[in-house]
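Why do we bother with holo predictions? Because pocket geometry can differ from the apo form. Keep that in mind while you read this record for zinc ion.
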Amino acid sequence: MQRLRLEIKGAVQGVGFRPFVYRLALRFNLPGWVSNTSMGVVVEVEGDIDVLRRFTEAILKEKPPVSILQDIYSEYLEPAGYTNFEIRRSTGGSKEAFVLPDLATCGECTLEILAPDNRRYRYPFTNCTNCGPRYSIINSIPYDRPSTTMSGFSMCSECREEYENPLDRRFHAQPNACPECGPHLELWDSSGIVIAERDDALRRTAAEILEGRIVAVKGLGGFHLMTVANSDEAVRTLRSRKGRKMKPLAMMFPSFSAISEVCRVSAAERDILESSSSPIVLLKKLDHESEAVHISELVSPSNPEYGIMLPYTPLHILLMMEIGEPVIATSGNLSDEPICTDEREALERLSGIADLFLVHNRPIARHVDDSVVRIFNDSEMILRRARGYAPLPLSMEEEESASVLATGGYLKNTLALSIGRNVFTSQHIGDLETPQAIKAFGEVWSSIEALYNAHPDIIAFDMHPDYISSVRARESQLRGIPVQHHIAHVFSCMLDRGIVPPLLGVSWDGTGYGSDGTVWGGEFFHIADGTVKRIAHLRRFPLPGGDSAAREPRRSALGLLSKLYDDPVKYLPAGTFSIEESDIIKQMLASRLNSPLTSSAGRLFDAVASILDLYQTIEFEGQAAMALEHAIGGIETEESYSVEMIQIAGEPVIIDWAPLVKGVIMDAAEGISNGIISAKFHNTLAVGIAAVAQRVGEKKVVLSGGCFQNIYLLGRVSNMLENLGYEPVIHRSLPPNDGGIAPGQVMAALFSESKK
Ligand code: ZN
Ligand code: ZN
Ligand code: FE
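The structure, written out:
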């Protein structure tokens, strides 16, 4: 006879863990107790050592699907003489326990809302301990009903019974609700007048959407704008009202089978689509048109992929069943503002975009956008990390005594916070370009500190002097550590994959402020022996107009060509610039006024896209580079241009793109297709990266930065590195783009602290 004590850390609260242990103890006939504590869950059971061992194995094997066990500490003690098994009251505030992300509706709840004899038939706010809202309704922890946005609803007797019964699926399901006692729907016209309620509101919404109307639908973490995806007219109207010309629009599909009508879906992609995170998954369009499902050309123009998700709340399931065909489900905002969460605010901000508003009275505690994911080599790569993922932490190798708060970058901003071993990254906030985004940045900052009751010692931020995220960080009272943008990218990937130095970090993106005051973006770092050394970078060229070059690939092209030719305009497609424009830019370049130097890989992509006349000006970040990647299509070629390395003693190696750009121009003049030129261009960059890897000789090669969202480049580089015996390390759980900067800043700050 022994007493076993287990202390379990991780995502173990609000996931049905205690009732699971309760049922397990009954099955093994073990007396004892289970309780939530400030760090997780504690279990004590008494019995035969053999049975205790099998009990522990069963915990590991059968744990609730949405729980995550991070650490399990076990010890054997003298028996205490327990006679029955009980769920004890929670002790202490749960500050270390994880807050869970919002979880897609589970199979059991889905069956209930579809069963006419169930009391939750067609009830859009059904949930249980295995599914439903979490992060989007939590005001503070411990995670109990009074600290959620459900505090205003008191449970009816039937719901209360479920909530209190350890054998019920809804035992301590904090947002538990039913049509009797829970939130309900309303359909409003554009002036906020109620035109339908409850199930009528839902049916009416479906009918209006089918008519081609644009409806703002309040969901889990904010509003979507929805309309039918098969109508050019509806999509065109939405695009013009939202001010979004070309950027692909996300869609929600009624079923997996409908998705497979229009996309090629692998088993790994299907798993992610149907997972409890239920993100938007980027999927390859099929070559042929489907007869059953039509999607307007305007949804994802000149792009070989769609961004698709499945319904993830009972509201979406019911709505999609009613509509029966794919809808656009794009964030309810103006371009690049944070997603709208409050119905009154929505009326104001989305007036002029939405014809109608489907709203409900369960408040949203914080905005949580849909996450965006792609599958690369059968593994998930998160491109936008929000619903379904945030705020789950990534854990570091070791416990750190200092707590670091990081304020992230400028585009795709997120914040991050480290406590002990864990690094928590906030949900996606967005580009800090609008007052709304800056306000959201401030809200997420205070909420992430409050949620974990954190008192950070250090604040880490981007070196850029003008980023609002950096300015705010410098204004704080905390000790500041500025972190170079591209170094943050590399550390982000290291945290993501649990990689420690020595290693080579390849950090390629659009732009970031370099520690020498120039604009970086094609960087290589050797991280070893406690230091980070910039070991190589792409050759620099001037960016006429500075920041405005990011929106005009033709400016990158002109800057780059000015390093090669006396009359660079001649090498650009006719009409790229007017005579006046090119005169101004030539003067700019000659006087070096407002023409910062850059080693950016992203701008090199832009320049080549401009030379090939894919895009001269763009609407969204990465648009020209994506077009260049997509130009390759299915072309397979091993050909490349040549790469030159310039080595000056004591300086980083310079990778010279001159032979590459001249090769592109020659091929284009000979009428070689853009696809082949682009493939050769990508191949050349991969050769360049592999060449640096061979010079440095570190086995691990970390690939980070927005350029590694480019699947062709990523595939090419990682294959080449593997063939040469290196170990390419690529992102999975943190975005390779600037959404991953904040956790990278935390890691880089801790790295620099550890040297002291
Ligand atoms: Zn459920
Ligand atoms: Zn109820
Ligand atoms: Fe970046």
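The mean pLDDT is 95.
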